Queue: 4 jobs
Job 1
Amino acid sequence: MTTDRVRVAVVADTHLRAGTLDRLPTEVWRRVAAADVVLHAGDVVEDELLAALAAETPTHAVLGNNDTAIGDRLPETLELVLGGVRVAMIHDSGTSAGRAGRMRRRFPDADIVVFGHSHLPLDEEGDGGQRLFNPGSPTQRRRAPTHTMGELVLADGEIAGHALVHL
């Protein structure tokens, strides 16, 4: 029986300035409203989006390299427990070469590391079973084939579900 189940909407690299929230796809807002918590892995850019997300669902965010206007209010990294799962967040995990070992060393106790920066969605197992999860970007796909976000289901200390959502 699941006693501690948390549905998580995961976004990163939204790059939305004041007055541009309409650029966030409706599907993202729908999934945020259905989630228990939102994780934003940086490059929020301005307060308006964080306030709108937090008004809908409890929201946690980390500092991205483009978050100069709100940088004094966001941590570089964040570690929290959701559904009994140890979650770590950072914006830039560095190059793909050596990422798994680097994230294991940086967050040795984390079950999952959520990151952004590259705009390239990634959902893979890293060192020692640690999950590496980049939701991509719902607004700037860059080299990715589509705009994306992520969803996690964390329950009773396990990652019960993980998916990249193509928007």
Job 2
Amino acid sequence: MNHLILDRCGLDLAPYQRWLDRPSDRLFLFAKEGRVDRASLSGSSRVVLTEFDDLDRAPELEHRAWTLAQEQGVDTVVALSEYDLLPAARLRELLGVPGQGTASALAFRDKARMKELLDAAGVPVAGFGVVDHAADLIGFASRAGYPVVVKPRYGSGSVGVEVLTDEADLVSFLRRNPELADDRGAGLLAEEYVEHELFHVDGLLHDGRVELAWPSRMTSCLGFHHGAALRSRMLAPDEPGTAELLALTDRVVAALPAPGSAAFHLEVFGNEKRGLVANEIACRVGGARILPAVEAAFGLNLLEAHARAVAGYPVTPPRDRRPRPLIGFVMFPPVEGTVRAVPSGPPPDAVVDYRLKISPGDVLGAAHTSVDNVASVLVRGDTADELDRALDSVVSWFHGSTRIEPAAGSAAQPC
């Protein structure tokens, strides 16, 4: 078989040649120039690398794929990044190969289409409206009231998400976004703000059904704006909300056009009055430290499972569909300033993985996405209480040993 792979991960994170290991299979790797270490491919006749200046602005990529299919044949199209879901779907339909098509990819990629389908199926969602022009946003705010959440319809990583709390915020937003006066439209989505506790559910879809899923509780993805650590931990099987979140996951997946086989990442709001409210779902592995957290809890690499499933390889889900142990993680975002001290001793005993990216003397800029970080820690616990205590100790340990001298005028502080 010939597998066309749209790659943004690199072979360190996604060793396709090891995951798709049938000797007769050939892997045609389309990647950004310089992203893949050519030396790592030396001596391999199975992997053929084609480089492009920019995967996001390379329409010739689709022509190259078409030419490849005519000359050598393409049996599957593999894409692991959210940004490649729609291009991969278009290629599958162009080349006549199986897998997620454009209707399904659009439902998982376009937040407006997603909300329309969920709402039509009776899945609880926040009030929403498409925002292409200033009038759309003004009208929505007048109907829904403040606060109003505005986000890109095709965004990810909380990039471009803003919460408008009053009319002054609205006017400021309009001034900063001239595309709201463009006839082509701004491509935004407005949502009613829901006071919430944030949950995410991560797992694997196989042949359109939920094969593996598990929920976690997470702090706000917007906390990086003021230096707050991103913290997540898996729920225990008998913990309040676990069964309800898994049931909601089934409803969300059933409401959208089936993608076939893929990893998924679902975000859910827990509201005291409204219960669970579906926020959005992505047809790919969750960001932050979700990939290693799931692997530590279930022994399954979701990225590998996604690639193998899309390529038609067998995927064996874990026998036990409950996490053993429970896993949590903390990611500490950068704040503007100069690093003066970092932890020098070993982390607490419950830590299973610790990654430090800074050294004394480093000058840091502000975080731009929810997953930007100067350090991250993976922690284990056999019970919810044990995991919470371990996470508390990690946060205290890191903040007690780290000192960043803020840049003049910086409002963000590590917290």
Job 3
Amino acid sequence: MTKEISQELATILLDYSQETRQGVEKIAQEVAQKGARTLQQTSPRVKGIYASGWTMQKQGDSFVIANITSPFLTHLLEKGHTTRNGKSRTKAKPHIGKVEAEVNKEFEEKVRRELGK
């Protein structure tokens, strides 16, 4: 009888962990897509390509927001950089950090709600 109970309990826990994993993955995908859309709307317009290049990509078990058209510009625009002649710096245009903080906070809140069910 105890063997049957332990097998039933193991099945219940496995089902719960799979449901939880699927729920968290769905939340991660939704939040990442929202973050990519927000960056498309709020990013600086550099030759019309940079802002439209934000997308969400799945890498393994994670969802990553990346700029596929101009990945080399993200840090330069976010932090500023030295000009070509080396005599001055460009003004930083922070746009990624704010969205990152919002996405992380939203993800955490939604996962807490999901686990609290």
Job 4
Amino acid sequence: MQPPRGLRQNIPLAPLLSLGTGGQARWFCDVTSEAELIDALAWAQHEQLPTHVLGGGSNLVVTDAPVEGLVVRVKLRGVDGIHPASDGVVRVTAAAGEPWDDFVAACCRAGLAGLECLGGIPGLVGAVPIQNVGAYGQEVSQTIVSVRCVDRHRLRSRELKGDDCEFAYRSSRFKHRDAGRFVVTQVSFDLLGGGAPSVRYAELEKALVRLQLPAPSLDDVRQLVMQLRRAKSMLLDPDDPNGRSCGSFFTNPILSDAQYAALCERCKDGVPPRFPAPSGFVKVPAAWLIENAGFAKGMRDGNVGLSTVHT
């Protein structure tokens, strides 16, 4: 069987990852289309090689040992549907290899509401459905209408409607029931042309009041979110040592009232903060739990440590 186009050997992964760690990939190729992706997956199957899919390289921990098998980097590009709109729903489709933050910025500039609170999140468009990426009161599940992907079992393309993705809090079928089965190649969103920005997060609301912005634009909200993220070292900034991280990957626990009461009984140093969650549950900040479990900001063990500004 012919090897995939652009196949290379012994490629260092560290320069491609936000943490800057990672050994050499035994085999490596970039794919710029679904056909190239299927060819690469088919070749790896034929050669009985494990396959690792790489996107933007954030939130990914790779050891310095050699990485056996084939590393496939998704580089499909293209955005369709972004244009200024005054009202009504606008369908926007982005290829999986588009940088997510650039895509959010372009939607805001076009007056398309629905993603403005998700600026500054590292990675590519193809990653956001897997985690059901969310921040500051928004989740991508609120706007995703379909996800196109390649089924690694059958080596063919498939399109899943938003309801079929089984989205939940920081979760989806891609992350659990079908973990590792699909490689996302394209995501379609329904955004609101001329819509008002979403301001449902308390920290965001307080910041807008402080800045005296009673009627912010979409880009005002996006820029403010970027400021809030920068203050917590949650942007990929080469000048910020805390920014070289694998991300804020702890989810905030969702508890029933009885579970929350039981947690309070166990806490000796104050009552855990709580915020409303769907279906009568409450959300408890993971950062508070981590700190009160004895892991302080800035703790280190050799070259590994916690951020000095956010656990």
